[in-house]
Amino acid sequence: MAKPQLKFVCQSCGSAHSKWMGQCPDCGAWNSLQQEASATATPFAQKHSLKAGGRVLDMLPLDAVVELPTRLATGFAELDRALGGGLVPGSAVLIGGDPGIGKSTLLLQAAGRMARAGLPVAYFSGEEAADQVRLRARRLGLADAPVRLAAATSVRDILTTLSAGAPPAMVIIDSIQTMHSDQLEGAPGTVSQVRAASLELISWAKASGSAVILVGHVTKDGQIAGPRVLEHMVDAVLYFEGEGRHQYRVLRAVKNRFGGTDEIGVFAMESDGLAEVRNPSSLFLTHREQAVPGAVVFPALEGTRPVLVELQALTVRLPTGATPRRAVVGWDGSRLAMLLAVLEARAGLGFGGSEVYLNVAGGLRVVDPAVDLAVAAALVSAVLDVPVPSDCLAFGEIALSGEVRPTAHAALRLKEAEKLGFTSALAPPGTKGVGKLSVSPVASVRALVDRLKARA
Ligand code: TYD
Ligand code: MG
Question: Ligand 1: which atom is nearest the Cα of residue 105?
Fold first, then answer.
């Protein structure tokens, strides 16, 4: 057996280096390199050495008849939706999110509901003692659900336990960072441990037909700690997100081999666990009688589902010489900088001497590119101190030229807006109105500024 070689592995991106450095040259993270034993010396690696020879594989045509397994309902329609229509047997799903966002709560509730529906479910907790999980189950009113529960951190023990009986329909591993595989040296939570433990669990899922759900914690900068390397190993990656202080939580699919991405499920955290929000379209609107400058409603499209959100912009003029702040909650800060530059260059509206704040109300994070025009309208409305009428909304992508470009699914957005009582929309030229909702076409940021100036 070869002597194990030491190497330094970045705990953020997984790249390996021969010497320690303060900053990872691949992802730029500071202090993220940790010494780990190289994986080449294990019996596992030797078994898979090319010299040992392999077996001849059956090669089949693409149209070979395959039986698609029926998806399982998790008991949460919102979770099923994020998964693309239910849990696929034999698949591996990663659920990531900040500590305390509600991953364990969501999965314990789903486990309880599935078990009550007669599906065998196993829950392995590496973070909490079995009694703690039981207490939580009692608080959630699930104490009588026939979920099989164990506190465990050894992948070997878990697989031995699972292999002893019929494979459950769903296995929950909470969390992957606490699991330890004996295929490799190293402490749980390191990149190579997380990778090895996941690989074993995922292979077992494929072989047994059980769906395995891995819980992963996210670091401050929004990456799944260490196991970003995990994202390509699993079939689906869901992020559970939300502003900690807000009640609402959004489960967002960022990768799905069995369905669309950007599909979201919406939940509210209540005293007895997570409740589904079946019709979230107006959830993130703040209710107000009077239009205020800087507030504009945007019909976002999350996957296939329209959600109306309110954008709030505030600009504050500063004395000359002071460095103005730009702060964004719920949107991309560099995209805001770009829009400010476009407004300045193409419409002559300067923000250089002002602080700019942008907030997406309700704690939703907007990723839809059609939000540009709504943000621009909020900024222009704030800086000119002219309100956009409260029954008017805005959407459209803005190019660096200042031109407003058409966006996907305009009709779907407008239909939802009409249902909620909106009567007009600032939208790219060529967009057709829907029912009582009429469209005011906006061709460029200059046209937008002129339109709002005319209202002043
Ligand atoms: P948890 O599921 O433990 O988070 P994670 O597994 O993602 O780390 O969520 C814990 C939080 O949820 C905690 O701050 C309390 C809150 N909570 C409720 O508000 N109501 C409840 O019924 C439960 C079980 C938790
Ligand atoms: Mg947890």
Answer: 2
What pLDDT does residue 223 have? 58
**Of 254, 225, 260, 221, nearest to 237 (Cα)?**
254
CA of 102 from ligand 1 middle (Å) equals: 5
pLDDT tens sequence across 348-368: 998 888 999 999 987 788 989
Query: From the CA of 97, which ligand is nearest?
Result: 1
Contact residues for 297 (Cβ-Cβ < 8 A; gap 6+): 285, 308, 309, 310, 311, 374, 390, 392, 393, 394, 417, 422
Provide the pLDDT for residue 32: 82
CA of 356 to the centre of ligand 2 (A): 36
Query: Which residues lie at CB < 5 A from ion ligand 2?
Result: 104
The whole-chain average pLDDT of the chain stands at: 88
Which residue type sits at 202?
A: I
pTM over the 0.90 mark: no
Concatenate the DSSP letters of all residues of 160-207 into one string. HHHHHSSPPSEEEEE-GGG-B-TTS-S-TTSHHHHHHHHHHHHHHHHH
Q: What single-letter amino acid sits at 70?
A: T
pLDDT in tens, 152-177: 999 999 999 999 999 999 999 998 99
CA distance 297 to 414: 12
- Count of alpha carbons within 13 angstroms of residue 120, beta-carbon side: 8
List all residues whose CB is within 6 A of at least one atom of ligand 1. 97, 99-105, 136, 139-140, 269, 271-273
Q: Tokens 């900040």 correspond to what residue?
A: 98
Rounded CA-CA distance 43/444 in Å is 64
Nearest CA to ligand 1 atom 15: 100
Alpha carbon distance 208, 132 (integer Å)? 29
